[in-house]
Design goal:
Elements: E1 2-11, E2 16-22, H1 30-42, E3 47-48, E4 51-64
Antiparallel strand pairs: 1-2, 1-4, 3-4
Length: about 70
């Protein structure tokens, strides 16, 4: 089962941006992820189409199961 950490940021353009990171380490929780996301915001490390991240909106770990049918 493939896992992805999905971090969503509110942008100063009024839109949202979701960053996906493959294979996150086990045991991630709010106490670990939220400060990292806030650091991205305070350091202006995320710029998308001229818009800056203004806040950490949400984070989740997504698990996907792929079943090969043929090929």
């Amino acid at each position: 089962m493939a896992k992805t950490l999905r971090m969503t940021f509110a942008m100063d353009s009024g839109k949202e941006y979701t960053m996906n990171l493959a294979s996150p380490k086990e045991g991630l929780n709010e106490a670990l992820v939220k400060p990292a996301m806030e650091s991205i915001v305070t350091k202006d490390a995320l710029l998308v189409g001229g818009a800056k991240a203004v806040s950490a909106k949400s984070a989740e770990i997504r698990e996907v199961t792929t079943t090969k049918i043929f090929g």
